[in-house]
Amino acid sequence: MAWYHSYFKGLPQIAWKLYQDEEYTDFEVDFLADVLEIKEGNKVLDILSGYGRHAIPLTETGCSVTCVDISAEYCEELTKVTRKKKLPIEVICKDVLEYQPEQNVFDAVYCLGNSLSFFPRADMLRFFGKIAAALKPGGHVALHTENLAESILPNFQVRNWMPVGDDIFYLAENEYRAEEGCIEAQQTFISGSEKVTHTVFQYIYTLAEITAMLQSVGLKTVGTFGNLEADPFTLGDEQLYLVAVKN
After folding, report:
1. Distance CA 164, CA 206 (A)
2. What are phi and psi of 6, to 5 degrees?
3. Homologous superfamily of 3-147+205-246
4. For position 187, what pLDDT does the model report?
5. Where are the domains of the chain?
6. pLDDT digit string (tens) for 147-184?
7. Pair 136, 106: CB distance under 8 Å
8. Three-class secondary structure of residue 197 per DSSP
9. CA 227 to CA 37: how far, in whole Å?
């Protein structure tokens, strides 16, 4: 069983939600609507959707969104909001690697939130293959990661910590395993007397590896950006937003 099957519950789940900035999420939604060319009536797939922080506002464009996530807690929360507000959102609680999307039915697909590092190479190819199969020809995909090799390795931190909200502290001890191309991290969350520690494996790819894998499944990269202002990605940028189109 992969580490992320049991990670997103309790303190880590609460901390992830507290860490999100609502204003920045709004900027990401505008970015998605633009680069994915979302129009009224479009069908959009949100992979590793969490609690729907992008999907919910995206429905204001007139599109419908299918959300896939492994966290039962997040899916339950999103389902309640969807029913209460009567939103055109379908929620699927499943490991994305086990999800079998309908083929050639989605106008756009996106995966934001730094989730690309979840998968080792064979699984990453499967993941990209599912995205390609789900997209209509000419459909767009947007991906985001903060764990690109060009971003994380130049200033690799063995230890780091930060407060999350008012009550949670996050600590990480990181070891880069070069032969496997991954970071093994001991991540600890502390809130009062409660302490939760997980061993996490974050797989690190170069931009060239990502674009080559996408190309191998029929997705042509058309933009690589270091921020939401669409400045070209360069060595040392803290994050990557990548846009591709299905051939």
Report:
1. 29
2. -115, 5
3. Vaccinia Virus protein VP39 (3.40.50.150)
4. 97
5. 3-147+205-246, 151-201
6. 999 999 999 999 999 999 889 999 999 999 999 999 99
7. yes
8. strand
9. 18
